[in-house]
Amino acid sequence: MIEEPKDPRIEDDELIIETLDTTESYDGNYLVAALLVFVARGDGNISDAETAAMIDLVKAHRKLSSSETLALLTRVTEDIASNPDFDSLLKDLAPLLSVAEKEEAALMMLKVAAADGRRDTEEIAKVRIAAELIDIPPDILHRAYDRYFEETQV
């Protein structure tokens, strides 16, 4: 028998999803990591450079240790592989981030998309899709692009 989850709810800074047997909780750190993995997988492969970028970005911006960051990215990767409706989870998690945090997440997604030295159209498309899923306003996404290009201009 397939268990239907109860309606998700936000408590404090976490999204809680319950079924009869389990309770899962997700926070803003999970959402940021999930967005980065979502983008990195856009071309079908997560390169070593993308993995390193994700670890560095999550560790620095979300103030996690290396082991916490690696465990979080591993959990996200496993969840994406086992959840065909992962996009819905991203939508449900959207309220956990402020507009400023969404701009930072967009900037990090752009950095991950370019980490392997290529800007694959699939990964850039995933940035746009992820932005839509978590309701990043177009002007905020544009500002993230501007910041990315300012940082990468040498």
Q: What can you see in these coordinates?
A:
- It is a single chain.
- The protein is built from seven helices and three strands.
- Helix 1 runs parallel beside helix 5 (99-114).
- It has helices spanning 28-40, 48-62, 66-82, 86-93, 99-114, 121-133, 138-152, and strands at residues 9-11, 14-18, 23-27.
- The mean pLDDT is 89.
- A hairpin with a 2-residue loop joins strand 1 (9-11) and strand 2 (14-18).
- It is globular.
- The protein has a three-stranded antiparallel sheet with strand order 1-2-3.
- It is mainly α.
How is this structure best summarized?
By secondary structure, the chain is mainly alpha-helical. It has helices at residues 28-40, 48-62, 66-82, 86-93, 99-114, 121-133, 138-152, and strands at 9-11, 14-18, 23-27. Strand 1 (9-11) and strand 2 (14-18) form a beta hairpin.
* SS elements, strand count: 3
- The best one-word shape is globular
The major beta sheet can be summarized as:
3 strands, antiparallel
Q: Structural class per helix/strand content?
A: mainly alpha
Q: Radius of gyration, Cα only, in angstroms?
A: 15 Å
State the distance separating the first and last CA atoms.
58 Å
Estimate the helix proportion, in percent: 55-70%
> Helix tally?
7
Calculate the mean pLDDT score and round it. Answer: 89
Across the major sheet, the strand order is 1-2-3
List SSEs in N-to-C order.
Answer: EEEHHHHHHH
- Which consecutive residue ranges, at least 5 long each, have pLDDT under 50? none
Strand content: 5-15%
Descriptors for this entry?
mainly alpha; 3-stranded antiparallel beta sheet; 8% strand; globular; 154 residues; 7 helices
